[in-house]
Amino acid sequence: METTKTRQTTPRKMYIDAKVMSGVRAAFMDENDKVLKYYDGPVPKFMPEEHWGDYIRLEIDLKTGRILNWDATKKNVGTFMNDPNRADNFSDPEPDTEPDTEPDPAPEAE
Q1: Comparing C-alpha atoms, which of 43, 37, 39, 41 is closest to residue 55?
Q2: Could you tell me how far CA 14 lies from the centroid of its own chain?
Q3: 25-81, pLDDT tens digit by residue?
Q4: Which of 67, 47, 66 minimizes the C-alpha distance to 56?
Q5: Residue 100 Rama label (left phi>0; alpha psi -120 to 50; beta)
């Protein structure tokens, strides 16, 4: 009887393509993890790749957790966050509140 060995491979990176159904909720935080502003709206233009306002596309290095298709030199998040044309999409945090980082519970199967 012949035995064959299965070679295990370790993935190097992962691509995530996600369709945003009802908008993005993001918390913009300072260096002390204090929430500066919340954003509710379409996928921001500074996000990587073509996304048409309703997709998120990320390429992640699985060893480091780094987002590979994020170019911080081309992203001006501060300008985006302070754009008066987007004021309706931003809200200030309530005093002494932490960001809501827990995902909404999945709907129960019927």
Answers
A1: 43
A2: 14
A3: 999 999 999 999 999 999 888 888 888 888 999 999 999 999 999 887 777 888 888
A4: 47
A5: beta
The H-or-E segment that residue 40 falls in is strand 35-41
Q: How many CA atoms lie within 13 A of 2 on its CB side?
A: 2
Contact (CB, 8 A) for 57 and 16:
yes
Report the chain's terminal Cα–Cα distance, integer Å.
Answer: 49
Token representation of residue 25: 């909720």
Bridge-based pairing of strands 55-61 and 90-91 is: unpaired
Q: Which pLDDT score is estimated for 61?
A: 96
